Amino acid sequence: MFYLCRTFQGSVKDLFFILELRSGLYYFFNMFDSVDAVKEFIRHPSVSTDSNFKEGMHGARTFISELLSSAGLEVEVFETPKHPIVLATRNGDESWPHVLIYGHYDVQPADPLNLWQSPPYEPEIRDSRLYGRGAADNKGPMMVHIAGCAKLLEQYPDLPLRVTFLIEGEEEIGSPSFADFLEAQKERLKADFVLLSDTSSRSEDAISITTGLRGIFCLDVKLTGPNSDLHSGLYGGAVVNPIAALFDLCASLHDKDGFVNIPGFYDDVILPEEWERDEVARLNITDDYLKKFLNVDALMYQKGYTPVEATRFLPTLEFNGVGGGYQGEGSKTIIPSEAFAKLSCRLVPNQSVEKICNQLYKTLQERCPAGVKLEIVPEHSGPAYGVVPPDRPNTPADQPEALAKAFRAMDSAILDVFGSKPCYTREGGSVPIIGDLKRVLNVDSLMLGMFTDKSNLHAPNESIDLEMFRKGIEVSYRTLAAVAGVDA
Length: 488
Ligand code: BES
Ligand code: MN
Known about the structure:
Layout: H1 2-7, H2 12-31, H3 34-42, H4 54-70, E1 74-78, E2 85-90, E3 98-104, E4 124-126, E5 129-131, H5 135-155, E6 162-168, H6 178-189, E7 193-196, E8 208-213, E9 215-224, E10 230-231, H7 232-235, H8 242-251, H9 274-283, H10 287-294, H11 307-313, E11 316-324, E12 334-335, E13 338-347, H12 353-367, E14 373-382, E15 385-386, H13 401-418, E16 423-426, H14 432-441, E17 445-448, E18 463-465, H15 466-484
Parallel strand pairs: 3-6, 3-7, 7-17, 8-16
Antiparallel strand pairs: 1-2, 2-6, 4-5, 5-18, 8-15, 8-17, 9-13, 9-14, 10-12, 11-13
Helix pairs in contact: 2-5, 3-5, 5-15, 6-14, 13-15
The protein binds ligand BES and manganese (II) ion.
Ligand BES binds near residues 171, 198 and 200.
């Protein structure tokens, strides 16, 4: 049907028919089952990190492009060095507010496959939850805003609102192509604010509006010792073992209180505001709950912060992978030639990725023992992001009116639709482009948390709660209506 619309070259009479068809399409779109759409989306295995999934990436991209085009948006697909970016626009008068709606069509790998109750790319509903890779990160939550916006456009075909959908395919690999794209498309991406759902909420009835994301940088560290694996009987005691050196080096990066032991690491960290601590407390994520949920008998305590506060207000350094030497069955008596570790740092607003990255490199170089050579390979990175809602002690005096209006509209929509006030909380996770949009265009983001800790992000049996999903659509619809100045 859309195809017909776009290629039509007929008479005026036929044009009327087409227009009827078009409004029919809006109707169709509104009536389209948004849950079915997410299911269909999940069926395209779009794993951005693995080149075996090219077809799935293409399928997911095509699916989302066609869906957006069916909502009456003009869709363009921009090639990038890795995975193309989809931009869908509804232009309008310059005086109309402009919303940039963000989502990512790529997903994390699904392995280990044997732990899935139903296959990852065959969506299945069990107990009002939709299961499948990408259900929560980010295919379901992205659909919340597509459906919310489509519903509003169907009701108000002349809606005084400019909308740009920015749907990328590299979020899960650190959005390496985004900086160049942003530079090239600056003008079109300049919106009053960004609307997205790629963050968490405490539960299905305790919804968060997210006020911060941690920044991130990742690196590989490799230590090389002797030019080949050595017989440990012949050389044990004589040469530095790269695994032992690596462990020493890694262990030096934290102090005994759990803080990161890199000079200057905390210099630019700003203490959370009192209201931010209160909001985190409202989440009621107790240490006991966390221990039970994670099946661990102890948590980390960094002085002055509860464990849940630490994930949201403090930077961290983690070891994501480690290897070297013999990994097979039984034993092998060697001194390995090399050892490696994968590290990442999460940073909080006001910390500079570049500064901390350099500090870490310098520290690693200084502490690397003689007898092994150090090699550092940087991976991807992205800045932290923070925004202050209106009516807080530290709200910037020059906060744009459109952003404040959108915050307030979302706040009251959440109260009405979910039955309780939202929590305003920072997150520990990262969405690299959100900080870039702020840095380059000075555009802030309004983030509605649409997954919970039941959603199993990046893990087997990922899922989204369908009741929350449907209510989310209503919140998105009402928020956009308020921004456009029409009744919802
Ligand atoms: N949706 C997550 C970000 C997120 C996770 C926000 C948890 C809040 C809580 C996003 O898709 C993601 O996984 N981001 C990666 C980015 C990285 C690969 C650059 C992350 O945070 O690890
Ligand atoms: Mn993710």
